[in-house]
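ARCHIVE CARD
Drawer: 12
Card no.: 0347
Subject: one protein chain, sequence and derived structure
Cross-reference: see card 0346
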Amino acid sequence: MPHVCQTTAVCIGLRVGGSGPLSAEETADPPQAGPGAKGGGGEVSELSRMELFAIHDGCSQAARRSVLSPGEAALCARAFLELKLSFLPGMTLDRYESLAAAERVSANRAGYAAFRDWVDRREQGPGVIH
């Protein structure tokens, strides 16, 4: 499955601003890049993490407005997985996919806990993001 985002504003067949579905040309597979890219180093910049967070937030907003298509839901879930994995040093999507089921559960939980901690720090105010 390709990396989910082309830009922070245009992701997974949805416009983050909520202006509706994209055309087939706009949703063409972008080059592999970002934390979940196959063979990537698993390290993610804060900018990439913010892009993934923007996708996740856009997906959440879109899902509040209407039911996502199965494809959109799958790509939103993929973006959230990439976001959670971005908090686990050395964890690439390739590595995650090669783990046994129980190890994937542990990685997913650890990534989610780190994500929630990051969100909580962001909500405390400016200058707190690490």
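Annotation on reverse: The helical segments are 46-65, 70-85, 93-98, 101-123. The chain has a mean pLDDT of 74.
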